[in-house]
Design a protein that fits this description.
alpha+beta; Porin; twelve-stranded antiparallel sheet
């Protein structure tokens, strides 16, 4: 049996807590158990993405083959008080590429299905779109300051538990909508504390998948005049795709350049590009999600935890 990916455990809280839940327990051939961080409502979707990706990575004998893409569907919301089971299916090992399918279940019910592809190093062309010109993170306000000043239990919770420092170029959406609107959003992110040196690219790419999920909704919220405090708003990830172009160092400031492409029929679609400080495009992601706000006397569930809508009728009405 292949062993789970080694996760560094020398960082400080709250980053250390994120690293701990990425450490999987092997329970059988290509089968792993995972745990969840404490959550306000449902399990955070980025956590399950990262855990599923690491489970797929653990099934590779050739550790030079790195994930270059994955496509995932969120099928149900997860319960943070229960463990997850991750089952990996080895679809293909070719001369240049490997493919894996990961099924994440909880209480014998599927909550996420992921297909991912891996490739080894290869010579060839190297070109990419340039990074947009924006202020550097050092010139922008940290979301941690905003959380600590919020007179709201979620703000206080995030001020203590948020593992990443987020700095928006446009107005942040934590307490109110952006009066200027627009479907473009840029922000910088990095961990509050480094994860350490000599860590395998598997972990860096998994952490990028972990953190990018938390900001994919914001371009759609911005263009529709909403914020995380919009009364009765419901938001849930439906499907998520990601492409890794080049090596990632999650310890560094990364620019997340996003655009909302569409909002209709209670769904949104956003696309995001990730750049290093010196302008190198390292990854991209697209996400479709459910976004509902109260209309015509109808109330949304008021839940904006990430993960598919629960099965109960009251949550899907």
């Amino acid at each position: 049996m292949t062993a789970p990916i080694a996760i560094p455990q020398g960082s400080h809280e709250p980053v250390a807590s994120v690293l701990r839940i990425l450490e999987l327990t092997e329970t059988g051939h290509d089968r792993f158990e995972a745990h969840s961080l404490p959550q306000v409502r449902r399990v955070y979707g980025g956590q399950v993405l990262a855990q599923s990706l690491l489970a797929a990575c653990a099934s590779l004998e050739d550790t030079e083959r790195l994930p270059h893409s994955f496509h995932a569907y969120f099928l149900r919301g997860g319960d943070p008080s229960s463990t997850f089971e991750l089952q990996v299916e080895r679809l293909r090992n070719g001369r240049s590429f490997s493919s894996r399918r990961v099924t994440c279940t909880q209480d014998e019910r599927e909550i996420l299905s992921m297909t991912c592809s891996f490739q080894g190093p290869e010579d060839g062309y190297d070109t990419a779109l340039p990074m947009p010109k924006v202020p550097h993170a050092s010139e922008l306000r940290s979301a941690l300051e905003i959380f600590r000043m919020m007179d709201h239990p979620v703000g206080r919770f995030l001020g203590k538990t948020a593992a990443f420092d987020v700095r928006h170029v446009q107005k942040e959406l934590y307490t109110s909508a952006d009066p200027e609107g627009g479907n473009i959003q840029q922000l910088w992110m990095r961990p509050r504390f480094p994860i350490g040196e000599g860590v395998h690219q598997y972990v860096h790419r998994a952490l990028l998948a972990y953190v990018i999920d938390q900001v994919m909704f914001e371009p759609a919220m911005r263009v529709t005049g909403n914020s995380w405090m919009t009364p009765g708003m419901s938001a849930a990830s439906l499907d998520h795709a990601m492409w890794f172009h080049r090596d990632v160092d999650i310890n560094d400031w990364l620019l997340y350049d996003a655009i909302c492409l569409s909002v209709n029929n209670g769904r949104m679609l956003s696309h995001m590009r990730v750049f290093t400080e010196d302008g190198v495009l390292v990854a991209e992601a697209s996400q479709q999600g459910m976004l509902r706000v109260p209309r015509d006397g109808k109330q949304g569930s008021g839940q904006w935890g990430f993960g598919a809508v629960p099965d109960e009728p009251s949550a899907t009405a």
